[in-house]
């Protein structure tokens, strides 16, 4: 894994400028309306995606069809469609590792949205295919605040390896899901020689599910008291009164996300306008209010202590690095 970038201050912020979402060239808007719709595949939760859909449809009067799944299923579906030549997506948005893999398989075309000019040049894809990272997704220990007393809540990741958590920790399966795999690989740099013994004990203590969303849902349901998942779920489910809180780790590890236009888009004009909308200041501010950690200076989601977090953004593993990690994690997590 390449060296991770430590972000100074409470949270990584990128200069995005102050311009609001523009109307878009009239010829592109007219073409998008003739195309009649845009089809988006992604791992962003549907409730959060809805805020961008409303902006887009309200401005352009073009319907958005959204297929949502965990990042691994998005990756599998996109690669299957590319391989068979029956491509149904116009836009894809998910975490960086999956996006880079789909890019290498020719899933996307070059597109430079006008909104990208507000991002630092160093954050741009050198091939002009992927957007700059427009949001971060911090990962932490989440816990059921009704089940655990404050004194019983883990205070560090190392606490999850303690015998008292045997069979009580929930984790997305790192042998198939790049999100927990990347999180564990990031911990290797932090823990050094202590990493392998920690992961062995974590594996002994953990039950595995498909996705980080399922982790949060089962912790809320009281099936497990603690898990490893996205911090944003504290807000997303907390709005409904769910007893979910998170551990203020220092640092918090986070994954970047990108968006891209299909190389075989059936609705290319509508796809470009959607990317413009998502990565505009208006789109990002709406995402922040919905619980996302977007890359706008001084803007934080409505999550307690979000502005105080020190976030470490990791370079996600390449296809080969993930293959090797999967073999290592299979030996650790599947031998129980």
Give an account of the 3D structure.
This protein is α/β, with parallel strands linked by helices. It has 2 domains: 18-132 and 257-300, D-Maltodextrin-Binding Protein, domain 2 (3-Layer(aba) Sandwich), CATH 3.40.190; 137-253 and 313-333, 3-Layer(aba) Sandwich (D-Maltodextrin-Binding Protein, domain 2), CATH 3.40.190.10. The chain contains 11 helices and 13 strands. It has helices at residues 26-35, 46-60, 71-84, 96-104, 178-191, 195-205, 212-220, 232-238, 268-279, 281-289, 319-333, and strands at residues 5-6, 38-42, 64-68, 91-95, 108-109, 135-144, 169-172, 206-209, 226-230, 244-246, 252-262, 293-294, 311-313. Strands 1, 2, 3, 4, 5, 6, 7, 8, 9, 10, 11, 12 and 13 form a 13-stranded mixed sheet that branches. α3 (71-84) packs parallel to α4 (96-104) and α5 (178-191) packs across α11. It is globular, with a radius of gyration of 20 Å. Mean pLDDT is 90; it is low at 1-22.
